[in-house]
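Hi X.,

You mentioned you wanted examples for the new student's onboarding notes, showing what a folding record looks like when two proteins sit in one file. Here is a clean example. The first protein comes first, with its sequence line followed by its structure tokens.
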Amino acid sequence: PDEELHYLNTKGRPEVLATPRSSAFRIAFEKRDCACILTGSNNHPPHVDKRKEMLCGLAIEAAHIVPLSRPDLWKLQFVAAIRKSRRLLRIGYAAINQNALENGIMLRADLHIMFDRFLWSVNPKTWRVVVFIPVAELVSFHGRTISRGDLNQFPPEPIWRWHWEQCVLRCLRAEGEL
């Protein structure tokens, strides 16, 4: 656990690998969520026709829950959870990797950055938003229950639990340094 914590929280900040988002990745998430799961906003200008390559408007991004910088964890922990989820939903076996629909959500750009830095998460038992660091833009979302839609390839509980645990560890580590 200490090595994991150090890896994710070097100098109090997690290392997140920034990569360009492919349009196929974004489109897949837009078809499922079509709006920020936290705000409900899709930021699409009402007078502009929705094209297949842009179902959500500007500043709504596809966000990985388990970051691309952690392929080691992905293979060990989450493939089985996704297979189980797909069996229960009777969904076909598309590729299961870090870009699977079950590892992503749509978020407003600023909330995406704060999610990647483990400032907030979703409690995997209650589906309520918990803000760990009181940032003005986040506080109003604390306690809000997120909608899981029709649950079609929505991220399963073990993936959310991983993100939740990283937030808790980061928060505890920060408290210990005071």
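Then the second protein repeats the pattern, sequence line and then tokens:
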Amino acid sequence: MSCDALAYCDMLQVLEACDVQSPFSFKATEMLKKLGSEEVSLEQLLQISTDAPLMPNILKVMSEFDVDPSLQEIWMSTCSPLNAQLVVPSDDLRTQIKLNIAHIVEQHYPHLVNRVADSIMRLLLDCAQDDPKIVTLFHFVGVFRGRSFVPFVENLGHDG
């Protein structure tokens, strides 16, 4: 087992041992959720790295992860001009997110497109990433896992 895997297991045990009645129970629960998301992303990355050739077909990878077509379009429109696949600059991704959510948000809240795009970026950059200037495909997919994209964006607009 690698050092990272051992550290992850240790963190998970400490968080699970937190008393439910402690003042930190909410924070511990949130951290457990984030760790769970990171674990799924790491498991998927490990599966790809062992099963795939040197350069995976990014559309095939996203379809295997059952990624919403809207999210696939955002990712592909960000990475294609950059000749990237698994990692993109966060500024470029924000631009594509804004372009792709504008038609959803503007129907009811035309002045909130930037705010909704910023909310999505905060969720993406809130992940346990070392460099906030980049976003990996796995973090991108992880943020939206289990959520329908259009209703999620509409809810962010309502919360705006």
